[in-house]
Every structure is written in C-alpha cells, then in structure tokens.
Amino acid sequence: MISIGTLAKELRERLGWTQRKTAEKLDVTYAHLCNIENNKKQPSRELLDRYRQLWGIDLYVLAWCNDGSIDKLPPNVRQAAASLSSAWRIRIEHLIREHSERDG
Questions:
Q1: DSSP string covering 4-57, please?
Q2: Whole-model pTM?
Q3: DSSP code of 73?
Q4: What's the whole-number mean pLDDT along residues 64-68?
Q5: Where do the domains of the chain lie, and which CATH numbers do they carry?
Q6: Mean pLDDT across the chain, nearest whole number?
Q7: Which own/partner pairs from 35-40 qualify as long-range (CB within 8 Å, at least 24 positions apart)?
Q8: How confident is the model at residue 91 (pLDDT cuts 50, 70, 90)?
C-alpha cells in the first residue's frame, strides 16, 4: 500500500528538515504534521498543494513511482511509467543536494 505520510516523512528526513520547521513552512501545526507522517491522518488537497509549492514534489505521483507496480500497468505505458519513476528519483536527489548546499 502506498503511504503518503511515510513518504513525506522520509523525504523530509532526507532533506534534513525537522518536523517543526516543515510544519511551519507548510503552515500546519506540529501535531497535525506528526499525524500525517504517522499515517493517522491523510493530507488534504490543500496540504498536498503546499508540499508541491514547498519542495516541487507531487507526493502522490512520487509515492506511486516508489511503490507502484509498473508490471501491472498495460504494456504500452510501462516504459513511460519507468521513465517517470527515474525522473522523480533524479529530481529528489537534486532537491536534496540543493537543500544541503543551501542549509549546510
């Protein structure tokens, strides 16, 4: 099962951000972010948009690329899905380097 909260937490940690900093940047409470990251609550559409604005990442698409089964897709879209997945991995590594250089 694809878990948006777990993915958001993993990405936040890879970026070296604290929950408090992330909650502040997303304009949510620390407790709400904890509930999202612990999969006790699902992020709203508005919160997903804020993640997208903050990090340039669509968490649903990234989650599917990380956890989806390309082999279950119709054969004519498997290559496109694999390319998308690869592009997201590259984007994440670039984002991590960018934040590391700026914050470090």
A1: HHHHHHHHHHHHT--HHHHHHHHTS-HHHHHHHHTTSSPPPHHHHHHHHHHHS-
A2: 0.78
A3: S
A4: 76
A5: 4-103 (1.10.260.40)
A6: 88
A7: 36/4, 36/5, 36/8, 37/5, 37/6, 37/8, 37/9, 37/12, 38/5, 39/3, 39/5, 39/6, 40/5
A8: confident
